[in-house]
């Protein structure tokens, strides 16, 4: 957990979800958390083929794409995660962070409002709120 927080000291500080018990997902998540996105991404994509629509896997995939500078692919994965679970805290927070990176403050604020309604003062909501405040 501390490793995930340290890795997220950049624009997004929300905590990545715990990987499901699937060994391929766990290894892919470990690689992504360690900054080895190009190695973790294929494992996560293979796991997603077996577990279609899993929002936690999609958040890891989006995170990897985002860190690799592939904003469009990251946004697509966040949208798929939210299609599977519209109130997924990690997907809402990270997508909000990506929106801020892309200059969409209104979109990030909408994600913050949805987080407030769905999880109250969860860590993901608090992180996105801080990011929005810093982006003023």
Task: Note down, in words, how this protein is organized.
- Helix 5 (71-84) runs antiparallel to helix 6 (89-101).
- The protein has eight helices and no strands.
- The protein has 136 residues and is an all-alpha fold.
- It has helices at residues 2-7, 23-33, 37-50, 55-67, 71-84, 89-101, 105-119, 123-134.
Helix content: over 70%
Largest sheet: none
Instruction: Quickly count the helices.
Output: 8
**Gross morphology:** globular
CA-based gyration radius: 14 Å
Helix and strand element order: HHHHHHHH
Q: Uncertain runs with pLDDT below 50, 5 residues or more? A: 1-13
Residues in β-strands, percent: under 5%
Count of distinct strands: 0
* First-last Cα distance: 29 Å
Round the mean pLDDT to the nearest integer and report it: 88
Quick structural overview:
With 136 residues, this protein is mostly helical. Helices cover 72% and strands 0% of the residues. The protein is globular and about 40 Å long.
What's the arrangement of secondary structure elements?
Elements (H helix, E strand, L loop, with lengths): L1 H6 L15 H11 L3 H14 L4 H13 L3 H14 L4 H13 L3 H15 L3 H12 L2
Helix pairs in contact: 2-3, 2-4, 3-4, 4-5, 4-6, 5-6, 6-7, 6-8, 7-8
């Amino acid at each position: 957990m501390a490793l995930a927080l340290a890795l997220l000291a950049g624009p997004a500080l929300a905590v990545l979800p715990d990987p499901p018990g699937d060994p391929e997902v766990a290894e892919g998540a470990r690689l992504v958390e360690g900054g080895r996105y190009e190695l973790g991404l294929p494992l996560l994509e293979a796991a997603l083929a077996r577990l279609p629509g899993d929002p936690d896997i999609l958040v890891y995939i989006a995170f990897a794409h985002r860190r690799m500078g592939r904003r469009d692919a990251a946004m697509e994965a966040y949208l798929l995660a939210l299609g599977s679970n519209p109130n997924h805290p990690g997907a809402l927070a990270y997508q909000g962070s990506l929106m801020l990176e892309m200059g969409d403050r209104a979109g990030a604020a909408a994600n913050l409002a949805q987080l407030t309604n769905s999880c109250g003062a969860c860590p993901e909501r608090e992180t996105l709120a801080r990011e929005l405040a810093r982006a003023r």
